[in-house]
Structures are given as C-alpha cells and as structure tokens.
Amino acid sequence: MSDTPRSPWTWVPTLYFAEGVPYILVNTVSVILYKRLGVENAAIAFWTSLLYLPWVVKMLWGPLVDSHATKRSWILATQLALASCLALIAASISLPAFFAVSLAAFTVAAFVSATHDIAADGYYLHALDAREQAYFVGVRTMFYRAAMIFGSGLLVTFAGSLEGGAGGIARAWTTAFALAAAIYAGLWLYHRAALPRPPTDVRRDPAAARAAGADWARVFATWLRQSRVGVVIAFILLYRLGESMLLKLASPFMLDERAAGGLGFTTQQVGVAYGTVGLGCLILGGIAGGWLIARYGLRRLLWPLALALNVPHLAYLYMAHAQPGPLVAYPLVAIEQLGYGLGTTAFMVVLMRISRGEHRTSHYAIATGLMALGMMLPGMVSGAIQEAVGYRTFFLIVILAGLPGLLTLPFLPRVVADEE
Questions:
Q1: Closest by alpha carbon to 69, among 112, 21, 123?
Q2: Is 38 in the same domain as 184?
Q3: What is the pLDDT of residues 308-332, one digit of tens each?
Q4: 381 and 241 belong to one structural domain
Q5: Distance, CA of 411 to CA of 402 (rounded, Å)
Q6: For 287-305, what is each residue's pLDDT tens digit?
Q7: Domain count of the chain?
Q8: How much is the pTM?
Q9: Residue 357 and which of 19, 315, 392, 396 are 20 to 30 A apart at CA?
Q10: How far apart are CA 154 and CA 183, in angstroms?
Q11: Pair 286, 150 in one domain
Q12: Tell me, what's the pLDDT at 361?
C-alpha cells in the first residue's frame, strides 16, 4: 500500500543517523565504557572485536529480510529492538554481573543493527528513484558521520562530565546509555510516521528468496575465480592489520594511568580527541582521498595513500614514550585519523574495482565482509598482546604489522590500477 509522497529530506537524514548510532556504540563506545568500568584490556579487545561478526556475515541473512515482511517493517522492528537493547545496557551497568549482561545486550544489538543496515539500504533503493538515490548519497553519508560524532564524541563527553558526580562512573554511563535509548526510541516513533510506503517495497516470494540464498554459493564461487584471488584476499585481510590492532587500544591507552604506560586522560578528553578532533580529520581524510583519486587516479596514489594509513602510527609510538598532554596528543591523533581516512578511501576504491560484472553488488558484499573479518580477528588478540608487552612495544608491533599489507600492493590484479 502506497501513501502520499513525501520529501526524502523528512526521512533520509534520520534513517542514516539511526543506522550509524548503534554501530558506533557497539564497536567504539563499548570499549571506553568497559575501560572506565575496570575491565582488562585483553578482555575488552577480544569481546568487543567479536562484536564485528554480524557485519562480517550479514550477507547470509539478506534473503530472510527479503522474504519476511517489507523493508519498512524490518526498519521499525529493528529500531524498536535496538532501543530496548540500549535500555538494557543502561540497566545492566550497575549490576554485579554487568560485563556478561551488557555484553549479551551488545551482541544482540550488533546482530539487530546489521539487519537494520540490510533493511535500510534496501528501503533506500525502493523509496527513491535513480536521480534521488544519487542526489542523497552525500546526505546519507553526512548523517551517518553525524551519528559517529554523537556516539564517540558527544555521548562520551557527556558521560565524562557526569563521572565526578553522585553515583560515580557507573551512574554516569547508565545515564548516558539511558539517554541514547530514549533518543533511539524517539527515532523509532518518528519513523513510524515519517517513512513512506513505497509501492515496490513488498514482501518477496519465499521461493524466490530461497533461490536467491542458494545463488550465494554460485556467486561466491565466481568471486573466488577472479584474477589473483589469493593476493586479493591477502590484501583485504592485511591492508589494515596495524590499524585494526591500534583501534581497539587507542582509547584504553589514553585512559590508562601514566604509571601503566598510558596518558592518564579523562573520559571527556578522550571524547574530544576521538569524537570531535579525530573524527573531523577522519572525515576530511575520506573526502580528500576521494578527490585526489578522482583527480590523479588510483594508479598514482595507491602507494602514497597506503603509506598515509601506516606511517602516522609512529605518533602513538612517540606518545607511548613521551606521554604528552592533550596539547600535543590531540594534533597527533588528528594526523593519525587523517591518514586513516586517506588510506581507507584507497582501500574502498580497490574493493569497488575488484567487484565487477554481473554480480558486482554481491561481490562487493563479500569483499566488505572479509574487510570486517580483517578488522575483527587482529582486534581480538590486540589486548592480550598489549598486556604482555606494554604499550611501547605494542605500538612498535602495530607499525610492523603495516608491512604485510604494503607487500601485497605490487601483486594486485591489473583491474585495480585501471582508470575508469
């Protein structure tokens, strides 16, 4: 059933803000939460990295989303479930078994959020025509990034501002996640009224959906038959090896006491470093990387952008030795995040270049699933490595971990360097 047409401006920004919020809370803010509650680095890195798993395998239940209800119904159901998960996390923080209960809630939220991604992206294609889809790509990206700022910046800073009050750290984070749950419930209520009902957004025939699921084996087989597939897989898994290890320990490093090798920053200072200054430079790096590749071509820039990803890791090695204050640390974090944005843009363009032909959408989904796997596995062991060797040696290992990915670059298939 269709309804009165409404402007995409009434729902595209809020839908993609709602898509970004749970992702950043599950994969980034959870790390800071557990660090402030006294969980050890090895446990934090292992369990929060495992939360990437739904984004690794979400392609497998795409046919389920197609065959059961409309994309609009899936969006509303998953948003209500996510609001409930955030409320459960808030309620669990003061419990004796807070880690197990909150981790279970984060795990459910991760699977629900990955399902929301499938539904939201499918709904976008149904609700907009080709011209509108192209026009609103930048809008959806901008509001997804706004969700990053809300989660890792504003929410973390808000929690930090409450940590010194009555109830201490646990009460502060309970309040922060309760606020996030309330905001998300508001988004669910708003979308119940604001999301249109596109005439093409209908439940798919279950038999057709099952056939689509069965096709995955054939599609995956065609992906494995591409030129130099071993090099491609190695590139995807190794290109961001050092960065994936650093990401899980960057916030704990800043929060740890100086006597433990950290910087001794407050929660508010970490919120500023990564949620505002760092994230701003990450976005700038992504924009600049896209412009540079469009202007000069990937053939010329693949090596420089890959180095831009890895060389700034030296900033963390320096900070581990010098243990500077915020005045020095903030610019160094900004430089590292700028390089991350530049290098990741080149990485994503490579994934697009190897996703060609009849099944390009499915091939890109396979590549991004492997990308998430490449972030998950190193992150799982990074905390145990850091605890065994200390921050100084750990950041040296991070730098060395960038070398295997660089060594794959000369052997990538020719299609990667072909300019379009």
A1: 123
A2: yes
A3: 999 999 999 999 999 999 999 999 9
A4: yes
A5: 16
A6: 888 888 888 888 888 999 9
A7: 2
A8: 0.84
A9: 19
A10: 13
A11: no
A12: 62
Please report how many Cα atoms fall inside a 13 Å half-sphere around the Cα of residue 264, on the Cβ side. Answer: 9
Q: What is the distance between the alpha carbons of residues 375 and 237, in angstroms, rounded to a whole number?
A: 8
- pLDDT > 70: percent of the chain: 91
* 212 & 200 share domain: no
Q: Same structural domain for residues 219 and 322? A: yes
Last residue of a domain, one of 188, 204, 220: 204
The more confidently predicted of residues 365 and 341 is 341
Would you state the pLDDT for residue 4? 56
* 47 lies in the same domain as 135: yes
Contact status, residue 184 vs residue 18, Cβ threshold 8 Å: yes
Nearest to 262 by CA among 170, 86, 386: 386
b/e map of 121-153 (b: 16 or more CB within 10 Å)?
A: ebbbebbbeeeeeeebeeebeebbbbbbbbbbb
- Rounded Cα gap, residues 281 and 241, in angstroms: 21
Which residues constitute the domain of residue 32? 1-204
| CA 129-12-134 angle, 5° bins | 40
Assign residue 29 the CATH number of its domain: 1.20.1250.20
